[in-house]
Amino acid sequence: MFHKFTKRQYTYLNYFFLFIVTLVLSSCARHSEPTLLLNVSYHDARKLILENGWKPAEIKRDEYGMDSISHFLDLGYTEVDACSGTGKGYCRFVFQNDLGLFMEVTTQEAPFAGDRIEMKNLDDAVVIFYGITDKID
User: I need a labelling partner for 85 at 20 to 30 A (CA). Which of 25, 26, 36, 64 fits?
Assistant: First the structure.
């Protein structure tokens, strides 16, 4: 009635089940990470990030550089960490999830017009980088 496995078949069967279990566990263990954020306006990217369970990280600030981030703070974007003040619209935003991981998002003003770009409208900021880390600097 039951098939008697050879030692080799039993070993292959164990590897197969181990592979399936690993596959299932790895897909379940992934934390929610927004995708397709690059070259998306920061305002749209922020909605996706928040919808995926990330929350604005608590950032300790001093008075230095507050004028460069005031626009985002006025919008209620407390996750803004810093803006470069170079006129190119480089800004850094930080989120945190329930696992204690941090997501750093960097923006630049769009379109990318080269060295002569001036920051006229912060609403044109688009995501040029995002990454996940276990601590922020």
Answer: 36
